[in-house]
Amino acid sequence: MVVVEPSPDVPSPTPLAEALARVGDRWMLLVVDALLGGPRRFNDLLGDLPGLASNILSQRLRHLEREGVVVATPYSRRPPRFVYDLTASGRELAGAVRLLAQWGAGRGGDAAALAHQACGTPMDTRWWCPTCAQVVDDDGGDEMRFV
Fold it and tell me: Could you tell me the CA-to-CA distances from 95 to 52, 89, 117, 125, 143 in Å, in that order?
């Protein structure tokens, strides 16, 4: 077995680069968003994502399966058909998808902001430290870091 040591000249990927390598495609994030509502069949996903070709959807679903974000469960053997659902890892993307949607809604256009279902007030996002029980402002300081 050959062990390849990382080159000191090549920086290791950042956490953001790692995430983008796994789900950094427009269609993959839209597929994850569609699956946040629960399991879906292929044609249901295709109908929920206008402009997405079936071959691209197949490729994206296979990629998301390899990354452990989506699981395909067969419901028919002939012809082979599957229902797709998010794994626990895939469901963890809900917060990131909502943050991106909120950011997109703030850029104008027809996108609606994420709102509280009970009262209709647009939601606000805050970073929270559960140990200190404090809101941590994202003011560009060094209060937050990847560990």
Answer: 24, 12, 16, 10, 21
Q: Are 46 and 52 within 8 A, CB to CB? A: yes
- Domain extent for 92: 15-111
CA distances from 132 to 95, 100, 141, 144 (A): 21, 27, 18, 13
Residues 90-100 have pLDDT tens digits of 999 988 888 88
CATH number for the domain including 23? Answer: 1.10.10.10
Q: Is residue 65 part of a domain?
A: yes
Q: How many domains does the chain have?
A: 1
Gap between the Cα atoms of 128 and 137, Å rounded = 9
Integer Cα distance of 131 and 144 in angstroms: 14
User: In this predicted model, what pLDDT tens digit does every residue of 12-65 receive, in sequence order?
Assistant: 778 888 888 888 788 999 999 999 999 999 999 999 999 999 999 999 999 999
pTM listed for this prediction: 0.74
Backbone angles phi, psi at 43, to 5 degrees: -65, -30
ω before 79 within 30° of 0 (cis)? yes
Task: Count CB atoms within 10 A of the CB of residue 80.
Answer: 9
